[in-house]
User: What shape does this take?
Amino acid sequence: MKLDFSIPRRVRLVYFGRIGLGILRNYITETNATIYESSRIRLNIWVALRMLLSGKRTEFAYYRAFLRWAQPHAVITMEDNNITFYATKVLAPTCKTIAVQNGVRNAHSHATDSDFKHDLQRLNKEGYDADTIATLGGLGSNFYRDALPSSRAQLVEVGHLMNNALTLGSAPGTARRLVFISKFPNRGAAGVDPEWNSKIIVYLGEAGLTAQQYYNIESIVARTCAIIARERALPFVVLGKRPAWQVGERSFFAKHLADLPWEYLPSTHQASSYESIRPNDIIVNVDSTLGYELFARGLRVAFVAARLHAANHPEILGHRFGYPLITDASGPYWTSEASDSEIRRILETVISVSDEEWSTLTRTARRMLFHFDQGNTLLCRELDRLGIANTGPRLWTRELIPRN
Assistant: This one.
């Protein structure tokens, strides 16, 4: 925790949290703005003093004290899964609030008796809400309709802001590749987690999963895909989620792909995954937001949505492809089973159909699940409606890409 001794001031706009800050600032031009950070991250002495005078010592009380100093016209966040943000409508009812969805939301929790969705449902009855929730598409809108049953929020399907703003990498004339999107966790610089097989890292309902159980699917799918790529004479690439200095990701896949040809592409900056993807790639995805983003663009994406099947909990449906808007456990380009035969079946479709057939085959699901809005026209339109100054729609040049 850092201490902040600056005297808070009144502002027109508050950025709630630093996640996605560089993305939002590429569009928002309001200069009379400040950043709210949790008291666990940065403690402003003046805000803390005001909180103590209220007789409370909670994050809610600290945020209330902050808002009384700032008195903003609007609060915006890309921490859409932060409960405290939704308290803004209780603490400052006339303040305009907009949450921008930053990832696929599931019923994950660190405890058996609560999760973000159910906590928000309960607090919505007490006034926790937002004016606008900019969702990733139909999946996100469905989640927030359930999470905020009494909400007055306007749900606007804008897609993922980064995906909308960037062009993909291009390498004309290069061979088609088979690319697996990794979701491997941060295991630090040493890449070693002594509790990998023992500590529960997430609860899905009452089912607690260790890291080994939760990420088991990564090794299964990567190995099967690498074998198929070798059989078809396709280069196989693991698109890393982690930077090169976090050696755990490379070590994990090196262990499971030891006797197979493969290439590892670590993350180098926030846009590196998009720059690494070529329009003619065959992409294999488990349940990452990036997989849905590329699918929404019309790229060939196979979904081995079998994380819970590989963790021996096939009864938990939340990680299935498109669930609950799509209820079929399998389809021409998706499966809920982590078996060699199923992975081969869907890859045969994704690889072999023509471009026209792929477009027809996926059109309904693409429109239903996820949105792609090149240049972020819908976000800028919503910012205009809420009175937040912005650049208007645009794609990003290299210098606009936020750093990690």
Observations:
- The radius of gyration is 22 Å.
- The chain has two domains: 2-159+373-400, 169-367.
